[in-house]
Specification:
With about 325 residues, this protein is mostly helical. It has one domain. The chain contains 11 helices and 3 strands. It has a 3-stranded antiparallel beta sheet, with no helix packed on it. The longest helix has 29 residues, at about 135-160.
Amino acid sequence: MSGDVQRTGSRSGRSAWNHHPQLPIEIAPYFNWPPEPVRTAKWFVRLWLPLTERGMIVGLSILTWLYLTPALERCQTLAFDWIAEIYIRNFALMFIVAGGLHLYLYSLSKQGRTLKYDARDLAENNRTFSFRSQVKDNMYWSLVSCVAVWTAYEVTFMWGFANGYGFMIEWSDNPVWFAALFLLAPFWTAFSFYWIHRLLHWPPLYRLAHAVHHRNSNIGPWSGCSMHPVEHILWLISVAVHWVIACHPVHVIYYQQIQIITAITSHTGFEGLVVAGRNRLAMGEFFHQLHHRYHECNYGSSETHWDRLFGTFHDGSEQATDVMKERRRMMHA
């Protein structure tokens, strides 16, 4: 969505930010009681119209299926050639999206610190990261581990559909359901992400895997998919819902692309992409930026109410920070 750039920030106090949205932040009104149909409709429209990240990913997934995916007939037998095609395509997509945003926002600094949440630069010469570089560390885990796991899940589906496993539908079978799956997928990804994310904060799993992602308290585009292979396997496995829910291969491609691409954009560290002085495309959520700074809050997304229900919602205020710190103290005690 486009709009005038607003420069709001807080450079004093315990929660100093270079920029933040209007506080306290809100979450989706889908489950509010009493219901708020008008506000809910406006929230939903804002996510999809006129030019939004989700709409762009729907278009990308359709183009990917039509022009960049092996024909199903080739996928009946596991073979190096068609698997390599999917791997190279996914590798290129990761590199173009994450690398392009990093180039624009950080290397070339095309919008400076406008709409950047955290004033700090990405870490260099820091032993916390592999290669002593945050960017190189993040690129390694994203390109080596994430692309491999992402491709493995997609290859499994393509082979399964080609051999008659699973419930595959065509547009002609049920066009309403076919289209609805594009709208419903983000709700399932938000639901599954919360529970998988909470599991990853279980201390043994956190130490084994999730700590790799949380090396990044100050995040950039390459941070979104920078995870341990165990976390990649758990995070992306939610696509398995399509083994029991009828779909088409394009839905699997879309489901995985919306997870991968929104992980990249939600970790840019910027609220939006500024072109010609206007915020042209909403990106990183302050909701998740708070999770990377404080860890024990905002496990889900602004589209779910689980954090509010379980008392882990941080709305960006100093009061919420105090509540979170007290809860954390009690947990450790």
